[in-house]
Amino acid sequence: MSVAAEQVADVRARGLTPLWACSAVAFLLFSLAVGVLAGPVDLGVGAVLESAAARLHVPWTSTPLSSTEEAILWEIRVPRVVLAALVGAMLALAGAAYQGVFRNPLADPYLLGVAAGAGLGATIAIAYLPDGLRGQRALPVAAFVGGAVAVLLTYAVGRSARRERDAATLVLAGVTVAAFFTAWQTFVQQQNAETLQQVYSWILGNIPSTGWSDVVLILPYVAVAVVVILALRRVVDVLSLGDDEAASLGVDVRRVRLALVVAATLGTAAAVAVSGLIGFVGIIVPHAIRLLSGVGYRALLPLSVLIGAGFLVLADVIARTALSPAEIPLGVVTAFFGAPFFALVLRTTRGGGA
Amino acid sequence: MAALAVFASGAVGGRSTLQQTVASETVPAQFPVTIVTPAGEVTITKKPRRIVSLSPTATESLFAIGAGAQVVAVDDQSDYPKAAPRTTLSGFTPNVEAIALYRPDLVLIAYDPKGLSEALERLGITVVHHDGAATFKGAYQQIRQLGLATGHKAEATRLIGRMKSKIAGIVKTARKAGRGLSVYHELTPDLYSATSKTFVGKVYAELGLRNIADEADAVGTGYPQLSAEYVVSASPDVIVLADTVCCGQKPSTVAARPGWDRISAVRTGSIVRIDDSIASRWGPRLVNFFRAMSSALARLRQ
Fold first, then answer.
1. Which residue from A12, A90, B32, B208 puts its CA 20 to 30 A from A133's CA?
2. For residues B18 and B37, what is the distance between their CA atoms, to the nearest angstrom?
3. Is the pLDDT at A217 greater than 90, yes or no?
4. Does the pTM exceed 0.90?
């Protein structure tokens, strides 16, 4: 199929069918339930349900859990599940939005240098901040600032080129900025060898057990990003036709693209700030949905939120339990289990004559 | 875990043997001398006058055995003792030319990246490579070999004797206090820990403590990342923070972590702050580590 034909097919593609909407919600609910019930400490399914009922003030219920078990469930496990859901939703949504905006199937949330910038911010925080500030709290802020600065720079470089093919120029600017920031980060890291372990563990990506504080930290950014991108979901379908075509349909291409990119970037920077670099989610989730359902962006974007959230919650369950009570870096899990799954999706959809 | 792996990669060491080519106990001339390290056999032809140490542990040992005056430069991580001539030389990303500028006759390393030792040897510089020790025996062996290599054999022997007797004394009293207690050793705030297989872990084993990381090391790296749920439910009696310098951790930051106020060590205030460098080296300050642990256990039993 030619590129143009594929794009036309995309626009004609179906909207959100009730079956897909219900399946996605069911998948997310299932993942959340597994996430809350499974963990390195076995609390028992019944006990967890009773404890939840007691929390919701259901009459005549009381928690069968000890105070330590209550803390494990409500202060460690549940916030971590919520955080994984937020990060997964954000990465999948940003990936899908970028793929539409840049008309590039390989676009992922880290395309415009946000990962490299966040990595530099985190490394600088780990290496240079004074002891008092160097606790876990300063790291996400520094990573967020680094990610945002990198994307701003990408945008500035892209704008300065003043080429016709705006989208492609922006991607090249992103590659340039990412290379520069990565080099800078490696240099800082080499100069401060004692920080190597911490930086490395951040780069591998994981959902931290930091209670509700990280959830509160990223929730506003993720919420704004989700609202903005979903509000523009029909425009993404038009944008995916090409800039000229979109403009002829009355879309202010530059402004819409800017709004989408800013929303996706802020959300991604917030997600990266707390979880480090979790690869693959932003590419595999949107593509798997597209291949399986054949929907256009106006349906793909909301589905990516639901399925991305569920996918990362399940991946984090594996990270927490596979080698329990030790942990596996989440970035390793997403790629290790995500890649074969995606290969299967590719195979079945091709086999089905799609 | 790259850096940890670097620190721990030598964990197989310590089973080295040593021999003297001039086997003479009475004659003061100790050179030439041959030592057998895990990295191979090294012959030192005459007493070294210009030593460069790229290993913070070796630096501490050199000064403890009276070889400090022979040391012309130490690496940027060698922050103890203060008298050590600290430079910008790096043991992790070493530059052969920068090292050669100090015209050393002996270079001590704990890490040998990209053929560092080969390059130095080609310049006619003797290299002794002592990886991280896995056992106390291995750590003493390294001090003994440094004594031989620098012409301070007697001082090295005396230092080892002092360390052994001090540690034995501490262990004798502390073992009673530590009986039945569990310990969690924290390397980083994201809960990387060290099992009984590792050098630090052996300190806890020696004190009779049960290490909660042992259960989590299915892969056998010695340095598993624990899940927060597990640490809270295991509720260790003692927490040792080896991430006070790197990552600003202290008892109050530990107590503020979600759910951690339920942990026994947090409730009793049995959180030991150990200088990262003491906990990650295997030199003479091993005694300080034992002393810090024993006073924490004594406080806990009061």
1. A90
2. 8
3. no
4. no
Residues 6+ apart with CB under 8 A from B214: B195, B196, B201
Instruction: Return the SS3 of B198.
Output: coil
CATH number assigned to the domain comprising residue A108? 1.10.3470.10
**In a mutagenesis test of the A interface, which of B90, B226, B227, B243 is the best target, namely the one with the most A β-carbons within 10 Å?**
B227
Cα B138–B140–B143 angle (5° rounding)?
A: 115
Predicted confidence (pLDDT) at residue A2 exceeds the cutoff of 50:
no
Lowest mean pLDDT among A193-197, B20-24, B101-105, B254-258: B20-24
Structure tokens at B215: 């259960």
B230/A133 CB distance under 8 A: no
Rounded to an integer, what distance in angstroms lies between the CA atom of residue A339 and that of residue A93? 19
Residue B154 token pair: 């007697």
CB B89 within 8 A of CB B72: no
- The residues pairing with A324 across neighbouring beta strands, listed in sequence order, are none
Q: How buried is A226 (Cβ within 10 angstroms: 0-12 exposed, 13-18 middle, 19+ buried)? A: buried
Taking residue B221's Cβ as centre, other Cβ atoms within 10 Å add up to 19
Cβ separation B259–A206 shorter than 8 A:
no
Partners of B37 in beta bridges: B40
To which residue do tokens 């949905």 refer? A289
For residues B145 and B153, is the Cβ–Cβ distance under 8 A? no
pLDDT, average across residues B155-169: 96
The answer to whether the CB atoms of A197 and B1 lie below 8 A apart is yes
Residue B239 pairs in a beta bridge with B184, B271
Contact B246 A76 (CB under 8 A): no
As a whole number of angstroms, the distance between CA B15 and CA B138 comes to 6
Domain extent listing, chain B: 10-160, 175-301
Architecture per CATH, B175-301: 3-Layer(aba) Sandwich (3.40)
The answer to whether residue B220 neighbours chain A at the CB level (below 8 Å) is no
Give the torsion through C-alpha atoms of A67, A206, A35, A95, to 10 deg: 150
Q: Is B118 on the interface with A (CB under 8 A)?
A: no
Check for a shared fold between B10-160 and B175-301. yes
Domain spanning B10-160: which CATH class is it, in words?
Answer: alpha beta
Q: CA A41 to CA A23: how far, in whole Å?
A: 30
Within B137-237, strands assigned E span 182-186, 210-211
A210 alpha carbon, distance to own chain's centre: 18
Nearest chain B residue to A206 by CA: give it.
B190
Total structural domains in chain A? 1
| Tokens of residue A185, six digits | 């980060």
Number of H helices, E strands in chain A: 16, 0
How many CB pairs below 8 Å do chains A and B form together? Answer: 130
pLDDT of residue A133: 60
- Give the pLDDT of residue B28: 56
Please indicate, yes or no, if residue A67 is contained in any of the structural domains: no
- pLDDT at residue B6 is higher than 50: no
Tens digit of each residue's pLDDT (9 = 90 or more) over A121-162: 988 888 887 665 655 567 788 888 998 899 889 888 888 876
Return the pLDDT at A163.
Answer: 60
Tokens of B280: 């990650």
**What single letter denotes the amino acid at residue A187?**
F
Q: Does B187 touch chain A (CB under 8 A)?
A: yes
- Least Cα distance to B43 among B62, B55, B25, B30 occurs for B30
Phi, psi of B16 (to 5 degrees): -75, 155
